[in-house]
Amino acid sequence: MMRFLRSAYVIARRDFSATVLSKAFIFFLLGPPFPLLLGGVFGGIGARVATQTSRPVIAVVSSPSDFQRLAKARDQLAQAISQEAVVTFVYYPPERDLAAQQRQLLASGDPPVRAVLTGGLDNPHLAGAIAGDPSTLGQLRLLIGNARTPEKEAPALIRVTSVDAGTSA
Fold first, then answer.
1. Which residues does residue 60 pair with via DSSP β-bridges, in sequence order?
2. In this structure, which of 58, 68, 82, 126 has its CB flanked by the most CB atoms within 10 Å?
3. CA distance 80 to 98
4. Domain range enclosing 31
5. In whole angstroms, what is the distance from residue 58 CA to residue 50 CA?
6. Residue at 168 is within a domain
7. Is the backbone peptide bond immediately before 111 cis, with ω within 30 degrees of 0?
């Protein structure tokens, strides 16, 4: 009986070593984490790209007073819809060589500027990669129009009457 158990132990030890220590078994154990790892990496990259594309950064080269009026119009729009949906403005004072300043701002990556707005509120000019983005152009038109108009205070309270939209017979 003892000989039988010893023989069984030798066979079990050889089979265990051949199975568990083989390359195929090690790859079998390490295989499932790879798709999870790749999914996490590509998901993080996709989230970063989505964040950068959802909120374009516009460099505003103008006088401080024009920028303050434009920033105030942006803040009002952001309160109405959401911060994430509205373009972001970054102020830069005008330099002597405006064309070189535009090229430098568009080439810089911190923050990633998609367009440069020059000319102030009276004669706005946009340069950059915004032409295919109608929502950003629409926002800029709205914001510039609101910044141009005299300041009016928003109503503090809007009365709302709820109406049941039931079917009529």
1. 91, 117
2. 58
3. 34
4. 2-48
5. 17
6. no
7. yes
- Span 93-113, pLDDT tens digits: 988 888 888 888 888 777 788
Calculate mean pLDDT across residues 30-56: 78
Band of the pLDDT at 151, cuts 50, 70, 90?
Answer: low
Residue range 79-98: mean pLDDT, rounded: 85
**How many C-beta neighbours within 10 Å does residue 85 have?**
13
| Cα distance between residue 117 and residue 121, in whole Å | 10
User: For a pLDDT cut of 90, what percent of the chain falls above it?
Assistant: 1
Tally of domains in the chain: 2
Specify the residue for token string 């078994």: 25
Q: Which two tokens stand for residue 107?
A: 């080439």
pLDDT (0 to 100) of residue 166: 64
Beta strand extents in 10-142 (DSSP E only): 57-61, 88-92, 113-118, 125-128
Q: Do residues 101 and 61 lie in contact, with contact meaning Cβ atoms separated by under 8 Å?
A: yes
Report the pLDDT value the prediction gives residue 35, as an integer from 0 to 100. 84
Please give the Cα distance from 61 to 139 (Å, whole number): 18
In sequence order, what DSSP letters do the residues of 5-38 get, joined into one string? HHHHHHHHHHHHHHHHTSHHHHHHHHTTHHHHHH
